[in-house]
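Milestone 3.1: sequence recovery, worked example.
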């Protein structure tokens, strides 16, 4: 539960890079439970960031950049363009957390957003957690000396 909370906090506050929590999940909990915990935290954190963007971010951003610009951003992600989130979520160093806030701000349909999270963020987190669990089983090849 602490690890899930850490992943949620990492998404919302971002004091640590997003790759470390899934790797830590794999190291601490192995190749089955580790990816499940990391993925749970990612879905909850992504949904929370989306909701914050939807409720609080849009009014603030609307005042800052104007309603017209915000509507144009929404139009860019309309139709099937939301699919562009999937490869962006898959890239390890992409601003995935910020994209979750932006998706809420531009009022991306929630179902499309969650599908993009499932198809883009979860494979990356599972791969990182599996890498973490594999490092433990490989023994001391990474240790100094």
């Amino acid at each position: 539960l602490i690890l899930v909370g850490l992943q949620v906090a990492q998404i919302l506050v971002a004091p640590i890079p997003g790759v470390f929590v899934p790797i830590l999940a794999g190291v601490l909990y192995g190749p089955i439970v580790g990816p499940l915990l990391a993925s749970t935290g990612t879905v909850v954190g992504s949904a929370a960031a989306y909701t914050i963007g939807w409720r609080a971010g849009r009014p603030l951003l609307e005042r800052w950049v104007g309603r017209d610009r915000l509507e144009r951003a929404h139009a860019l992600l309309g139709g099937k363009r939301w699919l562009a989130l999937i490869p962006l979520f898959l890239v390890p160093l992409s601003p995935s957390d910020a994209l979750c806030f932006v998706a809420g701000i531009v009022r991306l349909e929630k179902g499309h957003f969650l599908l993009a999270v499932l198809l883009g963020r979860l494979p990356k987190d599972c791969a990182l957690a599996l890498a973490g669990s594999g490092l433990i089983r490989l023994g001391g090849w990474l240790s100094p000396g």
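Residues 2-137 form one domain. The CA atoms of residues 89 and 120 lie 5 Å apart.
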